[in-house]
Each structure stands twice: as structure tokens, then as C-alpha cells.
Amino acid sequence: MNSIAEYFTDLYKGISSLWAGMRITGKYFFSPRAIVTQQYPENRKTLKMEDRFKGEIIMPHDADNLHACTGCGICEMNCPNGSIEILSDRVANAEGKMERIIDKHIYHLSMCTFCGLCVKTCPSDALAFGQEFEHAVFDRNKLTKVLNQPGSKLRKEAK
Amino acid sequence: MSEEIIQDVIIGESEDYIINLGPQHPSTHGVLRLEVCLKGETVKYLNPHVGYIHRGIEKMCEAITYQQIIHLTDRMDYLSAHMNNEAVCMVVEDALQVEVPERVKYIRTILDELNRLASHQLWWCAFGMDLGALTTFFYGLRDREHILDIFEESFGSRLLHSFNTPGGLMHDVHPNFQKRIKDFIKYFREKLPEYDQLLTGNIIFQNRAKGIGYMSKETAIGYGVTGPSGRGSNFSCDIRKIAPYGVYDKVQFNEILETGCDTFARYKVRMAEMWESLSILEQLVDNIPEGDFTAKMKPVVKLPAGEYFRRVETARGELAVYVVSDGNKNPYRMRFRTPNFSNLFVMNEIASGYKIADLIAISGSLDLVIPDIDR
Predict the structure, then answer these.
(1) ipTM for this model
(2) Domain that holds residue A14
(3) What confidence tens digit (pLDDT) does each residue in A42-58 have?
(4) B156 contacts in chain A (CB < 8 Å)
């Protein structure tokens, strides 16, 4: 007799516990406002990442195609993975002094771990993080980028 | 020298049935291989094989500077990345005797608790899914998204945020930081009871979780099982209480201890820790003092020769960092005592004698992160 009563109490408790869970799912099923899913590929135009989002490393250029990189090599030295390579030249300026200018600032996106040390340690704030995050390509070579635009020059500080 | 090769595997009998669970099995949550010996459906013994995702982080640390080590520690226990970073930062600050600003300590503690919440939420998702409740996965990730958005706004990355640096933080937190945390606390206090209604009270879940994976307090201490898994066996091992760091000595919180010693007890510890984390956040979020976000540090950090040791409480247990320095800019030897390594090897002890379906529940209740085991 006792075991029969126990059996039905367990059955009742079990069904009520399942019902408690089903009530939650039912509540969300019938209130479409609570849906938080983003329709990602469709909402590409309105999708905006946060300002500080670490998507990739870029070198900002102004309207006159000038950048701030002096080619000092601190970012290359601080990078833990060797994802930055700087090829620089020494060229004589108007006063006849030898000056270092960057030839190519090469950035290997495939090796980058987005630790942010290069952006933080750059003494002339030449590097920044970009918001681009769709990096999938079919060819691995496309992930090696040259950050300084062709024909760009070092921005001279106003003295 | 003896030419005998010492075999570390347990030799079974000829009629034993041995299967390999993993390294690609979804319920091992990573590349972990469990060599399970079965008698019928009952687990006779199991032998964990690790090393599938070994990257040699300890050795890599010997070649790079202390600032660069931070980003490697992210990749050990990726779900408590901030605590890992903090451990290395505190070792360096101890060695250099740098006093970090109060603001940094508050922000670090807040981030610790946010990260612990995010980790426990993901564990809750995955644990429910291991036991066949797919609904929990969506509900847990829905709430975790709010924490990750706070992280993304302040540091730019959601999971592996190398936000700490020896001496302080990389940059200051976003101006919205406090407001968003307050919004989140209000939101999550409403949503956390749903977790109990969905899974904790569920009769199917209770029948599967209760009474399996018995780990006595002696076993927990003997194997060094720390974190919520150890506290489920009434083993008081919370580093936040034993050796407070950050501002844990200024907040009121309870160390959650359960005496059940089974899978369900470990589940209850983590659920209660989420409430504790919320209350710690509430106490701290309004009291962040103004000030610098970093102490003054030299660009090249060189530790004085000697040995340094520091431990923190991650979401899974005790993480200890041991550094031997010979005075150079990179460590001579770096050693991490990671919680998951100890938590994994207790599995033979606590899963033997139970059914193979219970093995999944037991491994889920230990909350293993495989890259932390192998490092």
C-alpha cells in the first residue's frame, strides 16, 4: 500500500517538475518579443561592432595619404608571434641627412593573436584596430597585408 | 640501467571490453581521450590520456617577455582568461614590489566575478546538454551574451581579452562599464530562477545526477581537487577566502560548501556561486575609486633573481604560478599549476563502478577545459 502511494507521489512530482520547465519554454514560445537571435548574414548593413573591437590591425591614413609610422620597429619587437615585419629604407632628405622611411609594413593576419601590444606600445600612434571581422578567404596569401598604402608618406609634425 | 619500460597503463583482464571515449567525442568538451574498460555497461576503470592539445606554453614563456606571457595564459583556461592573466600580473607585481592603484584592484575583482559568471553559465549550458537537455544550452548562452558584450565594449574582445598587463590594465574601462554591469545584475537576478525551474527541479535531471560520482573529502584532498568540484565534497579550498587578493578582503561573501559529495552537489555549488558572484558584483560596482588605470612601469620588465609564487581562484579551482627568474627580461622557468589537471585524474576514482552513461554526467560535473590540462 505504502509503495503504491509513493509511486503516485513520485509520478505527480515528476510531472509537475516537467511542467515547470515546459512553462518557461512555452512562455518564450508565445512571446516573440523575447527573442534575442540576430539574423547575422542578413543584418550585415546594420551590424556595427563596438569602437574598441579588435578586428584587425590597420594603419590610419589621412586625406593626403599620410601616415604616422616612422619605422622604428617597436611593434615588430613587441609582437609575440612575429606577425609584423617592417622593411625600411634610409633615404637622404632635403637637408642631406639620412632618414629612415618605411618601405613596407607587413602584417600577417594569420599569425596575429590580437593581444594589442603593438597598438599600445607604438610611440607615434600609427597603428589602430579596425572593425573588420570577416576574414575568411580561399587563399592564405591574402591574409598577409601591407599596411601602408602605395605612395603614402610620413606625416611631418608641425614644428 | 634497467631496460624494463615502466608501463603507466593499468592492465586489464582478457575478457575486458576497452573503448576509447574521445579524442573527438563531443561530451569530453575538447580533445581528451578516456580509455574506458567496461564490464557490461559498468565502468571497471578508466585511464585518461592527455596531450592532444599540448602547445608547450611553459616552455614558450621562457623565450618571451613578461608582457607577452599574458596573451599565452589566455589560451590555457580560455573560459577564465582574466583570472589567468591576473595571476601572472600579480607575480610580476610582487617581484617588483609595485603597488597597483586601488582602481585597478576593484576593476580586476569585478572582471574576475564577471568571468566566473560567464564560465559557470557556459558550464550550465554544457552540463544540461550532456544529460540530454538541449534547451539549457540556448538559455545559458542567451544570458552569457550580455557579459560578453560588456567585455567587448571595454576590451574589444569577447573571450581571450589580454586586458591585464603587469602593473595595471591595458587601458581604462569604457565609460558605460558601471551602468552596463548594473543593468546586467538586474537582468540576471530575474533570469537565474529560470535555471532552477528548467533544470534543477527537473525529475529526469535529478534522477541522472543524484547519487553518482561519489568523491569523499579525503579523495578530493588527496588528488588536489579544487574549485567548485572540491567544494562539492565539503573541502574548503576557496583561495578568495584563504589568501585574499584584489579586494576580496573588502567584500562579504560566503564560501559555498556542500556535503553531498556527488554530481548533484557539485552542480549545486556552481549554481550557488552564481548568486554569490552577483552579490560581490553588487557590492563593488558602485565603489570603483577614481585614479590611474596602471602603475608606473618601465617599458622593459626585469624581475630580480629569485623565485616567486602566487595563486588565484579561477572558475575551476586553484591556479598557481611559479616563476624562477635569473634577472633577465624573460623567466628562467615558468610553471603553472592548473586546476583541471588535478580535477581530471580523480575521474578513475569517482567514476569506477558506475554505468557508462553516468560517466558523461561525472565528467560534465567536473567542468573540464582540456587546453588547461595540456597547456
Answers:
(1) 0.82
(2) 2-34
(3) 888 888 888 888 888 88
(4) 50, 52-54, 114, 116, 129
